[in-house]
């Protein structure tokens, strides 16, 4: 009777060990799935081993992934070129605007001096000097105001941009 109890205990122990082993295997399988699901890589392309695994799932998948990355990179380059072209056009437009401002400002100054001089010579020296000096003072204030505004804009454009263009 001792032998049969001992055999039953051994059987129970073996069954328990097998159940424990199967539980451990199931846990290992679950852990390996978790580990596989959390693999990450840096860069635009997955590592070659991952590309090979994609090919085993579906043929030519790695070629499709590589061509997708190439198209994306080409798009980024085109967008950067457009951005640079737009910035160049903006700079040219601002330069042309400054030239026109200077031409018109000079014209207004010359006209006010000439008209003030004519009025001072012909009719009233006081009115002529007032017209000439008012025109020049207005031009000086406008020049200083525009100059300060341009300096402020230049200072703001020199500050680092928080919307990094590199992420485009």
UniProtKB/TrEMBL annotation:
InterPro entries: RP532. Pfam families: DUF2335. Residues 1-11 have a biased composition (Basic and acidic residues). Keywords: Membrane, Transmembrane, Transmembrane helix. The chain crosses the membrane at residues 103-121, 127-146. Residues 1-21 are annotated as: Disordered. Coiled coil: none annotated. This is DUF2335 domain-containing protein. It comes from Anabaena subtropica FACHB-260.
